[in-house]
Design goal:
The complex is a heterotrimer. By secondary structure, chain B is α/β, with parallel strands linked by helices. Chain B has 11 helices and 10 strands. By secondary structure, chain C is mainly α. In chain C, helix 3 (61-92) packs parallel to helix 6 and helix 7 packs across helix 8. The chains are: A mainly alpha, B alpha/beta, C mainly alpha. Chains in contact: A-B, A-C.
Amino acid sequence: MIISRLVKDKLARYYMFVLTIFCLLILFIIGGGLIWKSWPIIKGEHFLKLLTTSSWRPFKGEFGFATFILSTLYVTGIAIIIALPFALLTSIYLSEYATKRMKKFFIPVVDLLSGIPPVIYGVWGTLTIVPLISEKIAPHFVDFSTGYSVLAGGIVLAIMIMPLIISIIIEVLSSVPTEMREASYSVGATKHETIIKVLLRKVAPGIFAAIILAISRAFGETIAVLMVCGNFTDLPKSIYDSCYPLPALIANNYGEMMSVPKYESALMFAALLLFVIIVLFNAVSRIILNHVEKRYQ
Amino acid sequence: MTNTNLSDTLEENPVNIKNIKPHLICENLNIFIQGNHILKNINLTIPDKSITCIIGPSGCGKTTLLRSFNRMHDESTEVKIEGKLLLDGLNIFDEKIHVTDIRKKMGLLAQRPCVLPMSIYENVAYGPRIHGMRGRKKLYGTVKHYLMAVGLWEEVKHRLKTSANRLSIGQQQRLCLARGLAVEPEIILGDEATSALDPISSAKIEELFCELKKQYTIVLVTHTLRQAKRMADYVAFMYMGELVEFGNPEDVFNHPKQQLTKDYISGSFS
Amino acid sequence: MRKAKNILFKILTITSSVFILTLLLFILYIIVRKGLPAMNWDMISKIPEGGFYLGKAGGVLNAIIGSIYLVGGAVIISILISIPVVMYLNFIIKKNSIFSRFARLCYDILFGIPSIVYGAFGFTLMVFFGIKASLLGGMITIALLIIPIMIRSIDEVAYMVPRDLIEAPKSLGATNYETLKVLVRQLLPGITTAVLLSIGRGIGDAATVLLTAGYTDSIPTSITQPAASLPLAIFFQLGSPIPEVQNRAYASALILTILILVISFTARYFSKKLSKHI
């Protein structure tokens, strides 16, 4: 009797251990797999040339990733610049000013925003943001814009990453003990002074980590940006020009890649680029956040 | 022990406050937290330039009372306050008065030292800067003066720009004191300010209080009777939200007028 | 002056919050406004009939069922993997050991990997194993996507379980495995919320299924057949030049949005209701 219980116990333990290791390994298998698949193109071309040329003609064997890398950077940059002020102010409101009732009401709102599927943001972006840019905003600055642009991608992305930044900042702000706020009030500081000079300073690493996480999220967002960015392989010269971020490249061309040599490698290389940067950013920001929130100690 | 009995006895035996110069006066102070009547009809006079120790069993409301002095309860939505708190005659709950001005006049030293996330120098300079002090020389002078006043200067003068977190807990508490003094308050409030410290740091802080009472009015909530016996010029004993007895230590400890006080001091409950 | 700054700052934070609220409402409003006119019973009860993509009859039932199959399968796979992992990390090995911290870091990183990378990897796996674009391929890829989500959600709850609760069964003589069976019951609300969260994420994601599940107008009858999904249905229909088809894209978007809202509210309701029993 007891022996079979012990056997079950041992088996269960073994099973759990294997799965835990397996899930860990997924991370490394993905990395390894992507490296292996993109090896032909890394080996073939000069690495720097791959990253800096913008000529993309797969059927001629030309693979210059500059357009895609720059598009990703531009779109993400705009997204962060737009999202950060709103996210910061809103999380400060929710953490420091809002009553319990307001919090109960607002937090689901933020959660809902983050739960909306990317494809819906893409539809919405096509319906509202794209015409807004082509009809109301761009005419002030350029001769012509279809609206499918860097700016459109940036705006849609900004809304998509706001909930993430908000939830992290609220989390780190709530980890600051009340005593610290009271210490500031005790010398006669106002709430605003306490927030800016004491609280934000205390959670600055956490905010930094939130930004990094948001950037990595923006880097990888595929479908929403794809639907509003234009997908032209030319280098965007202004924010009203079309752009072509890395995820969109992969998503749009996976079907054709089998027909051309090295095309598959090129797309996998794009995926690898995303993977490496995102893994790095996530690792750094998680380590910072664990430290700030003093988790697992 | 009902409410009416207490107020009767207090009237029959009025506290001897004839020769005290009052600094802070509680008039019929009642505080309700989440509907619970925490402080009941407190009438207390805090004498000027002396140390008043508030003693009593845990839960009797002494911290609530202390925190009402610098209007810390403003930050909480669940607290209702009735009555007056007169500082040099002016009711601090008056709407025309800005809470930051009141807090400037009171320095609060909490139980666990909480240094601000900045350097030692900036911690002390924080208060003065907020209230408008400018100029490097002036600020430096202020910081140095108050760090010296709490006996920290020699220990930290060579590392003023380092983070305040690196200090020991005793040093941190002294830093908090310096920070509170730097805005030039009139009253210093201590909420069991030494209970988290080791005996040596504790003694240092007590020493400082005894020095400071020459210039400031000090109100301390103490958790040990021994500390009150050591330092107090006046003692206030509280029980279940009411002020039971008030007087100088000689009277309260050796000749207590209330049975409750007698019981507490003899250790029947704590 | 200081008082003015204080009040101004508060107003600024409130304005920002109201703005975000308005944004959410606006997004929902647009989806409803464009989707409602094109909604009809056919949309959710019929698969595309001949000429659907030219504007004629049919609906997106293929996509609805396809999505349900895809996410359902993925969730089952994930539960079978995530729960043992969380159990192991929290109740078998020492809670804050270096290994568990490293593992959690890795899972957090996996959590942040975008769905397109999972899609590309899933595609590579399928080519490697000779699996064609199908329900199976999609399920595996979505499972890869949601395993980190589940691990993270359940871990948050499991981490909070007090020491005595873990030790109580053991002190009665139960083995580790038997203790876990008790603890799973304790964690059921957390697991339910995690599952709902993962469903929400999985059902709305396009990049995972784009490269792995294929697309078809019919409802798959076996795991090796390709499957349509709602996000792709929306995407493809939107790209059509024919206005009727575009309108149907909006209707499909509305269907997906309603599905997500229902899942979100259910998750919220469950997590509140079940946590009362703890």
